Amino acid sequence: MSSQTTAPAVPAEHRILRRAEVEAKTGFKRAHIYSLMKEGKFPKALRLGVRAVGWDSAEVEQWIADRLDERA
């Protein structure tokens, strides 16, 4: 009898996503992303400089996974 083994969870890669990448991954535009952040429903942006922000890729991926889990 063969036992089915599940692969161990691969640790999420942490890198900084810029706004265009976040928009592409979520399908949301800037205004909606910032609105969700303000409501506490989307990961907060990290300040990278005076006029630059980014998001932790692992947090965004987890947010997407959570939305998909809610569908099930």
From TrEMBL:
Pfam families associated with the record: Phage_AlpA
Superkingdom of origin organism: Bacteria
Record PANTHER family: DNA-BINDING TRANSCRIPTIONAL ACTIVATOR ALPA
Protein name: Transcriptional regulator
